[in-house]
Automatic annotation (TrEMBL):
This is Branched-chain-amino-acid aminotransferase. Pfam families: Aminotran_4 (PF01063). Pathway: Amino-acid biosynthesis; L-leucine biosynthesis; L-leucine from 3-methyl-2-oxobutanoate: step 4/4; Amino-acid biosynthesis; L-isoleucine biosynthesis; L-isoleucine from 2-oxobutanoate: step 4/4; Amino-acid biosynthesis; L-valine biosynthesis; L-valine from pyruvate: step 4/4. It comes from Cohnella hashimotonis. Belongs to the class-IV pyridoxal-phosphate-dependent aminotransferase family. PROSITE patterns: AA_TRANSFER_CLASS_4 (PS00770). Keywords: Amino-acid biosynthesis, Aminotransferase, Branched-chain amino acid biosynthesis, Pyridoxal phosphate, Transferase. Its cofactor is pyridoxal 5'-phosphate. Its EC number is 2.6.1.42. PANTHER family: BRANCHED-CHAIN-AMINO-ACID AMINOTRANSFERASE (PTHR11825:SF44), SUBGROUP IIII AMINOTRANSFERASE (PTHR11825). GO terms for molecular function: branched-chain-amino-acid transaminase activity.
Length: 324
């Protein structure tokens, strides 16, 4: 679906997968004006596919658009197109537990002009791919590298938008994490390098005693759809969740004195990923006994159960797509 200044967004079309033809002077290549989303569809036992919270993803896409000067898409039109796309591809969704169809909608600036100004034309594209279970052999805690030099985003920047530049800014730290044998980077704030922001592609949660703490949505982190789902599940179970600043010093002290009992990340890809250890300033701090924590496991099982249609969808998160 294309956008032209004056005429607005056109009608979405479903076409066979293939390369995009873009002019080398397209603004996206030079100034990074682009936004994207990542969401999943699951096939239930009745053979029909369901999308997980698609409207919330489209709304977040539009918030990213607003920050990046991309014209908003029509929610209903994009939702309709995504439903049709999933229906067309439903046969590709594997039946095995934990498998799904990953959908990646994105918008790129296509105006052919070298000059820093919002583009006057855009292409909206959505691609999808079947994905296997993130934890094919059971949920395993992952080692995480705490980045103390580079920052991913600062308040006032574009950290709360899902835009390519945030991920490009993180590649250097991701390399360092991989060298340390770590799966992802834990980002600290861009001013003092003290407060926890988020993990590479996940929001971060810590359990101090009976309180669950997650950094607030202050403008530099992504408002994860899974983060919101997990907060609602926890509060529904009567668990206290505080959205408050949490420093890496508090986390390290909690790990040393045993008060920090669990840590986990949340995101579309892994759902809930227990954190097994934090590598911070050359030190390896183990979380709990290195096994997935009680709440991490319960959250993972509950949310994946809802997504697979094995547990009641009390919050109305699953949306069935039309049958082919
Ligand atoms: N933070 C970042 C930077 C991400 O890329 C993601 C993945 N979209 C998340 C958090 C988690 O968001 P969600 O739960 O919506 O997938």
């Amino acid at each position: 679906m294309d956008y032209e200044e004056g005429t607005g967004w056109g009608e979405p079309r479903i076409v066979p997968y293939g390369p995009l033809l873009l002019d080398p002077a397209s603004k996206v290549f030079h100034y990074g004006q682009t936004v994207f989303e990542g969401m999943k569809a699951f096939k239930w036992k009745d053979g029909r596919a369901r999308l997980f919270r698609p409207l919330d993803h489209v709304r977040r896409l539009n918030r990213s658009c607003a920050r990046m000067c991309v014209p908003a898409v029509d929610e209903a039109r994009v939702l309709g197109a995504l439903r049709r796309l999933v229906t067309a591809d439903a046969d590709w969704i594997p039946e095995a537990p934990g498998t799904s169809l990953y959908i990646r909608p994105f918008v790129v600036a296509t105006e052919t002009q070298l000059g820093v100004a919002p583009s006057r034309s855009y292409a909206f594209v959505a691609i999808c791919s079947p994905v296997g279970a993130y934890y094919a052999e059971g949920v395993r805690p992952v080692p995480i590298y705490v980045e103390t030099e580079h920052v991913r985003a600062v308040a006032g920047g574009v950290g709360d938008a899902k835009t390519a530049g945030n991920y490009a800014a993180g590649l250097k730290a991701q390399e360092a994490a991989a060298r340390m044998g770590c799966a992802q980077v834990l980002w600290l704030d861009g001013v003092e390098r003290e407060y926890v922001e988020e993990v590479g592609s996940m929001n971060a949660f810590f359990r101090f005693g009976d309180e669950i703490v997650t950094p607030p949505l202050g403008g530099s982190i992504l408002a994860g759809v899974t983060r919101d789902s997990v907060i609602r599940l926890l509060r529904g179970w009567g668990v206290s969740v505080s959205e408050r600043p949490v420093s890496i010093g508090e986390v390290a002290a909690g790990l040393r004195d045993g008060k920090l009992r669990e840590a986990f990340g949340t995101g579309t890809a892994a759902v809930v990923s227990p954190i097994g250890s934090l590598h911070w300033r050359g030190e390896r701090l183990t979380v709990g006994d290195g096994e997935p924590g009680e709440l991490s496991k319960r959250l993972y099982e509950t949310l994946s159960g809802i997504q697979r249609g094995e547990l009641p969808d009390a919050y109305g998160w699953m949306e069935v797509v039309p049958s082919a």
